[in-house]
Amino acid sequence: MSYRIPLSSVSLSQLEAQHAQDAISSGWISGSGNYVTHFEEQLTHRLNRTHAIATTNGTAALELALLGLGIATGDEVIIPALTFAAVASAVIAVGATPVFADVTEESWTLDPDAVRSLITPRSKAIIAVDLIGHPCNYDLLLQCGLPIIEDAAEAHGALYRGQTVGQFGVISVFSFHANKAITTGEGGCVATDDQALAERMRLIANHGMHASQPYWHTMAGKNYRMTNVTAAIGCAQLQRWDELIAARNAVAATYRTAFDFNARNRQIQDRPTASWATPSCWLQCITVEQAHGVVDQGRRNGIDMRTIWAPLHQQPAFRDYQHGPCLVSERISAKAILLPTWSYMPAPLIHEVVATVLQATDLLAQEISARRHLL
Ligand SMILES: *Cc1c(COP(=O)(O)O)cnc(C)c1O
Questions:
Q1: How many CB atoms lie within 10 A of CB 342?
Q2: Potential cystine with 150: which of 24, 169, 229, 290 (Cβ 3.0-4.6 Å)?
Q3: What is the pLDDT of residue 302?
C-alpha cells in the first residue's frame, strides 16, 4: 500500500545523477572502480577512521564485521533487545548466538550493567547500536572488556561527547539504505583503525581472493562488494553530507516546535537525549500512550507512521535465544512511534502529521475517560 505521506523519501540531486551516469559510461559497473575507491576514502575522512570498506548493504557490513573478528559457531554476541532485526540476523548468519540485553531509559541504547550481567566465557563481542540517531554510552560499554561493533546505521552525523559516531567500536558499521540519512539505495560499510582487521575484512568481502593473485583463494570468502554505480551515488551523498544531515535535523526541529513537547502537559514526548549525546535525526520518534491506536489512525489517514520494533526476544524468529530481563525495551516498544521524516520534508506535511497525532491522542484519551465514566 502506498501512503500519501510516506515514512521516508530520498533527496537526490543532479550530482548523484551525473556521478551514476559517469560510472555507467565508464563501463565499470560492478564491485570495483574509481568511485568505490573514492567513496571508501571519503568515508575514512568523514568517520575519522583509517580504513573503510564499502559493502552491498548494512546487514552484510554487520556480517563482515563479525566474520572479521573471527566470530563463529559456539560464540555469543550481546546485542540490544530493542533494535532492527538485522542485528540479530547477522549474528545468526555467521553461526553465532545472539544474547539480548536491555537498554536504558535515558538513552534507549545498551545498558552497560545489563551487558555485564550477560557475559559468559563464550561472549565474543557486543554490537552497540546507536539507536534512532542517538549514540551509546561508549566509555561504560568499553569497560565491559569485549570488542565492540558499533552499528551506526541510524545515526549518521550524531556525536558522542562531541566526536562523530562510527569511530568508537573496533569496527563500526553503517547502512546506506534509502530510508537512512545518507543513502546509496542499498549499501553499507565497515570502518576500522586496525589494519590487520581491515585487510581480513577486505579479503572476506572479495571471495577470500588474494589481492594481487587472481583466482588464488586463501580462505572461503563472501561477495559483499558495493558496485561502482552505487558508490558513485554514495560519493555525491558524501559531498552533500553536511547539507543532508542539517536538512534532516531541521525537520526534527520543526516537529519539536510543532509538538511543543516541553510547554504542554501532553502525553506526547520526544525520544530522550542522554547527557553525553548530540543526536542526529534519522526518523522523528515520539512516545505516546495508545501508540498502536495512534498509528492505526495515522495510517487510515494515509500517513505511514509506525510503532517501533517489537523487542527482538519476543519475536518468533528470536524467541528461543537467551536474554536478560528486558523491561525497559518492552516499555519503550509499547509507546514509541516513528514518524515520516526525510531531508527537506515540506513543513505543511510535518504539520499535518503532528495534527493527526494530536487529534488521535485526544480522541483516544476521550474514549478512555468516557469508558471510565461508564464504569
Ligand atoms: C537499517 C539497519 C541495518 C541494516 O541495514 P541494511 O542496509 O538495510 O541491510 C542494520 N542495523 C540497524 C540498526 C539498522 O537500522
A1: 23
A2: 169
A3: 98
Give the number of other CB atoms < 10 A from CB of residue 298.
Answer: 23
Written as one string, the DSSP assignment of 252-276 is HHHHHHHHTTTTS--S-EEPP--TT
Please indicate whether residue 59, judged by its CB atom, sits closer than 6 Å to ligand 1: yes
The 8-class DSSP code of residue 98 comes to E
Looking up cell 572479495 gives 206
Measured in Å, residue 102 CA sits from the centre of ligand 1 at 19
Taking 3-state DSSP, the helix, strand and coil percentages for the chain, each rounded to the nearest 5, stand at: 40, 15, 40
The beta strands (E) that lie in 105-187 are given as: 123-129, 148-151, 159-160, 163-164, 171-175
- Write out the DSSP string of 103-118: B-TTTSSB-HHHHHHT
**Is there an atom of ligand 1 within 6 Å of 133 CB?**
no
Between the CA of 265 and the centroid of ligand 1 the distance, in Å, is: 35
Q: How far, in Å, CA of 213 to CA of 167, rounded?
A: 32
Contact predicate 295/307, CB 8 Å: yes
Ligand 1 atom nearest to 130, measured from its CA:
13
**C-alpha distances out from residue 165 to 57, 138, 253, 317, Å:** 18, 10, 21, 29
Look at residue 190 and give its three-state secondary structure: strand
Closest by CA to 75, choosing from 148, 141, 125, is 125
Q: What is the pLDDT of residues 251-275, one digit of tens each?
A: 999 999 999 987 765 689 999 999 9
Ligand 1 site, residue 153, Cβ cutoff 6 A: yes
End-to-end CA distance of the chain: 39
Return the C-alpha cell found at 136: 551509546
The set of cell numbers assigned to 119 is 557475559
Which single residue is written with the C-alpha cell 542485528? 87
Alpha-carbon distance of 165 to 133, in angstroms, equals 10
Report the Cα 302 to chain-centroid distance in Å: 25
Overall pTM surpassing 0.90 (yes/no): yes
Strands 97-101 and 76-80: parallel
